[in-house]
Amino acid sequence: MALSRRSLILQCQVDQHLRVRKISSWHESLPEANRADVTEGWLTGLLSGISLTDGEHCLFTTSHPTLLSGRDVDVQVEPLEQGARISIYCSMAQRSLSRRATDRTAAVFNALYGSNLDALVTIDTRGAIMEFNAAAEAMLGYRQQEVQGAEVAEIILPFGKHDVQYPDIAGYFTVGKAPLTTQRFEFEATRRDGSRFPCEITLAPAQINGEIAFFSAFLRDISGRKANEAALTRAKEAAEAGSQAKSRFLAHMSHEVRSPVSAILGCLELLSDTALDNEQNILVKTADDAGHNLLDVIEDILSFSKIESGTYQLQSRVFSPIRVLEQVVESAAVRSASRELHIGCCIAPDVPLNVVSDPVALRQIVSNLVDNALKFTQEGGVSVRVYVQGKDLNADHLDLRIVVQDTGVGIGAGDQEKIFEEFTQADSSDRTNFGGAGLGLSICKRLLEALGGHITVSSEPGKGSCFQVVLPCGLADDTTVFFDTQQALPEIVGVSSDNTCFASDVAEQVALLGSSTCAADQLTAGDAAPLVIDVSPGTMPSEVIALWSARGFQPEQLILALPDAYSEWAIEARKAGVRGVIARPFTATAMVGALLANSNNKSGNAKVKAPGGGARLNYRILLAEDSKANQLIATTLLEKAGCVVDIAENGQEAIDAVKAEHYDAVLMDVRMPLVDGLTATREIRHSHSTDELPIIALTANVFGSDVDRCLDAGMNDFIGKPVSRDKLLSVLSRWVEGAADAIPSHPKQEEVMHPLIDDSVLDQLKRDTSDEAALVILQALQTELFGFIDVLKGYADSGTLSGDALATLRDSAHRCKSSAGYCGAVQVQELSQQLEKACVDNQADVALELIQALIDSAEETQAVIATMLD
Question: What pTM value is reported for the model?
């Protein structure tokens, strides 16, 4: 039946909450399904703001977007005892202008609703579906008539997921809460056939008379977008995996190349000690310089590849930043000794002696910056300075500001950003004035970012460069600072130097300590102020002292800067009574020590000491050793302690040398060609009246039985390899100074050292695999030892071990113990096992003592493996 102007469309009885109790009239044009739910949805919109409890009849005209396609209707409300009777008629009102506007709005609404490519669902405040456009039908598989009045959560959310995985959206759909309105939200929706798909929804509330009457939900199937995102993620992961694989390959190849390059450099060093003519010396030096440049490039590639592949692990621990920085400067000075450039390190007095960070990373950052500065500096010098930028005692935190400044070629403003990119240099042309891989600054930036710091540069072409590093550090328990400014220092210090960089560093350090400097010619003869003199290379200290004495200055005023603080000239200067001797490179520690020294040379700097702190030993020693490397190590240690050393390369040469010359002691290797050490000792004791001559065994086998064999052969004592400087000098002093009372050392159980490589284990490995496979395994161990040594050196630098550090060190020692045992590297295996046990027992002091022994043993084991692989 068609609708007339006064047709009854709907009549029903409802309770006070508009819930339908009875439908008494329902026009045939209305949908048959879910009458009660549809009616309640309509009434919610029609009766918004109408109270059913006022007890009065109500008749009004309104329109509804769904009912009669938005046409006006008359609504009559008759209050009942509980609820009301609602009657809805076609409107009799004649409102032509309003009707035209309403028709236009309805047309626009229907056009948008039907043509929208997104699924559009209109929902009442209880979550029941009112409208369901064609896009929603296509997306979800339902017809509008099927879902009208149904709860939307039951239609689009997977069964059983309403309150668990989608509590917000389910609650919104079911109880009308709207925490997600005007926001996009992604969830997993379900279709009529049960299939699920990713969906994005936006909820928009519609208000009538100031209250929310219904909601529009815009739904979009984002399966395609999610598939594209997944594809992009897979592509990104594949690219990253490829990049990491390439980085791992670079790391492996860097190790492979580094080993033979190190061997080449070692051979060149040994070759340079032989008798060479001028042309050969030039060729050897050229090859050595090129080899070290190649090694620098390899180290940069190795570090960069570790960072790229994610295998570079930062390890924070307590360490001395002052020690790290001064060691970097000292190492750089050795590498650039032939260029006569100044290198110095200044320290602000409030810099703590100990902080918490990663010393290995800091060492690499500053080393890269200093090496980079030296590479681009032809004259003048490089200065490293460290200050405290910010300190938060409440947060146990401070920032160190480290400045590396040079007098080199400088960097243009346009190049100052790109120099921190990998494989990039300021001069990217085909010219190769400076060389390098362009990785050093990139490594610095990445390491600093990982540490929470940053790096900046300021520079002008032709005026040098200044790199500033800000490094966040934790505060150590020991809050002692570098220098207490309450200590008495001279108010003014004179400086005499032709190098402006040296004078600048002296002035900066003195100013940081609270004093001032002046040029030497501004001091008068009667001044008691100390005078720092930069002694030119080749100038004897005696000449300098005589020159300034003639000008009225006393020796105890003079502080001489010499290439070596322990050279004969330095000893001569100290004997002349100078205030102090500081070695190049310039360091804050040496400067402070010299300034604090008095005229009687009571300071630690003024005493004549061997590098290890003991007195100089004026002994003549015969070293019977066939290994060139061991000869070099022992000779260097002995000569720096003041000894004169002769070398015999086998037992027979040792016998002949003792017969021909007088020696204070003999250091005898046990295993040597032609005549071994035991036989040589027996011959010396039998053929010559040399019972009083101390003969001390050098051996890698310090088992009790081996010691007994040495003593039975006539040796007085033994020193285990690798040779320890303190042990070597201590044993020599004991036997040379008091041979009559000296007794041989006997190894404690924990001091017993095994041979570096057990041939029986290695032979068994070859039998179990093959000769080729055994070499590959040895090569893998050698690579592993490189990383293990780096870890150990980091802990050795710190000087302390926390609980976390002990746990990390325990794991590293355990891994190395297993690898070393499998390859027969029993000495490394034994020391690793002892270190692991010390870490498990929280014996930090014992662990620190074992670390150095393990470093020495691992490095010597690497050398043995390198020989096997050749």
Answer: 0.44
